[in-house]
From TrEMBL:
InterPro entries: Mycophage_D29_Gp19. Pfam families: Phage_Gp19. This is Phage Gp19/Gp15/Gp42 family protein.
Length: 127
């Protein structure tokens, strides 16, 4: 199966520099991102992947990879430490999940152009 984005597309969006051993994680997150995108769109692209799909796939995978490579606990959005007298803090937000991929509202907005079909509220005349 072809992928919607390349490893380079993902690494260009990372906030952490991956090691060469992190390639397996990147490939796995691209696969998961493709499944999430296919489920949202209700279709799969075998050839000529639209630019919006490529960008969203790379963004989704990069978010998941960044969480996987981070030293913070899975799902933590922020951490703080204090040296004396020894304090620590972690916060978990609404977008924190168990380390899997997810589509944000912005991702879904970007995918609407390739989703096809009419979606949303509309009126049907009955006469």
């Amino acid at each position: 199966m072809d992928t919607y984005c390349t490893i380079r597309d993902v690494t260009d969006r990372l906030t952490i520099e991956p090691d060469k051993d992190d390639k397996r994680l990147i490939v796995a997150m691209v696969d998961e991102a493709m499944v999430a995108i296919d489920a949202y769109l209700g279709k799969h692209f075998d050839e000529s992947v639209p630019a919006a799909v490529r960008v969203v796939c790379a963004r989704v995978a990069a978010r998941a990879v960044s969480r996987g490579l981070s030293s913070a606990p899975v799902g933590a959005e922020s951490q703080s430490f204090t040296a004396g007298p020894f304090s620590t803090s972690q916060s978990f937000g609404s977008n924190s999940n168990a380390g899997g991929v997810f589509l944000t509202a912005e991702d879904k907005r970007m995918l609407r152009s390739v989703r096809g079909g009419r979606r949303g509220a509309f009126t049907v005349s009955l006469y």
